[in-house]
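Regression report. Comparing outputs from two consecutive submissions.

Submission 1:
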Amino acid sequence: MSQIAKKHLLAGIIFGDRENNEYIYLPGGEVGTDKPMCIYEHDGQRDDIDLDEAGYLVEHLILKKCSHPSLGNRSF
């Protein structure tokens, strides 16, 4: 799991792949919680995933920092 990716998610950075419409980000309401849940957008749906899985997916799907079509550059 990418510790750097997890720290970036906790700071509001959005990771994604615009060509495949995949995005992973941490919603503002999850900041400061004991077990923050991220959003994984793919295939027209949104799934809740924990921070460890989000870090893993960012690394293994080779997602890059990007801007989200509706959220912009930061998730909060």
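Submission 2:
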Amino acid sequence: MPGVPPVFFPGDVLVVMAVEADGVFECQLADANGRPVPSVSDTIFIEELT
């Protein structure tokens, strides 16, 4: 959204922690070993992944 700083950047690997009923993904950044980084999380909409 305009004026909101990004949490994730192109090339980041994400771990999907939950999927809402409306298809919204709750994600956390993954570290180099694929483990979630709990302090870096956000909601991702499918339109943002294409």
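Expected: both submissions complete independently.
Actual: both completed, but the second showed a warning that disappeared on reload.
Relevant detail on submission 2: The chain has no helices and three strands.
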